[in-house]
Description:
Layout: H1 2-97, H2 101-116, H3 121-133
Amino acid sequence: MVDKQAKAAPQLEAAQDVDRIREIIFGPQMRDYQQRFQSLQRDLDRHQQEMDRLAEQLSEQGSDQGKKLQSLRQELRQADEDLRDELRQTGQKLTAEKVDRVALGELFIELGTHLKTGGSLADWLKGLGEKEAE
């Protein structure tokens, strides 16, 4: 066991000597590289944080745009429904208010008969006014 410790001590000293020589030769360059890497790491971290913030902001904007689009779709559906209702009501009103063809035909026949028998248009219109008043 003493033999192993005796061999380990010179190897440890040799490794320390190699480290000192490496520090003397490459020390300034290694420190410079280490500073550069740390600077790059900080920049990379900062850029990553900025990208995360922008991604979150973009996500929020997408969500807001989605809500606005949904709202616009609902407004469009409501406007479409209102327009359709108005068209239905107008169609029903026109249907209810239009003169029946049969009634209009009978009215023309009556007018023709009245004019044929020598009556005047004014008398006929006066007679129609009296019928409506009753």
